[in-house]
Specification:
alpha+beta; transmembrane; 2 domains; membrane; Porin; 145 residues
Length: 145
């Protein structure tokens, strides 16, 4: 004679549910730490657009042809040059782990560029400098093909 065990089906269901939830959790963790982290955007290229700034020294200014060239990139780190009214400067920067935000600095500058990747071919950059030559400005730059 076969005996039915009460609660056996519900115990198996809970066990399988626990295995499924655990597997989903492991997959989610793997995706966020391994796969998504490897999808670091490539910023190499020439970017240009209009730069709008404000400062006590120069007031409200519009720079019609802001050009930034990112010449090399290794993982989240990159280097490049930008051209502005006083010439050309070298810079280096990093892409944050969110794969959207970045910052770059230039040795002779007193400020920072904070940026955001808007899509594969568009970035937004904002420069902020304090002290004597305090300036704030932003540009939307498109990758040139």
């Amino acid at each position: 004679m076969i005996k039915k065990q009460s609660g056996n089906a519900s115990s198996q269901f809970l066990l399988w549910l626990l295995v499924l939830v655990n597997t989903a959790g492991i997959a989610y963790y793997y995706y966020n730490t391994e796969i998504k982290a490897k999808q670091i955007p490539n910023l190499v290229g020439t970017w240009s657009g209009v730069n709008l700034t404000v400062s006590d020294e120069k007031g409200y200014k519009t720079w019609d042809d802001k050009t930034v060239t990112i010449t090399e990139q290794q993982d989240r780190r990159f280097r490049g040059t930008f051209t502005y009214a006083d010439g050309t400067k070298n810079f280096f920067g990093v892409i944050y782990p969110d794969n959207k935000s970045f910052t770059w600095v230039s040795t002779p500058s007193h400020g920072f560029v904070h940026g955001r990747i808007l899509d594969d071919n568009t970035i937004g950059t904002c420069y902020v400098e304090t002290w004597e030559h305090a300036t704030a400005g932003c540009a939307t730059l498109s990758r040139q093909k």
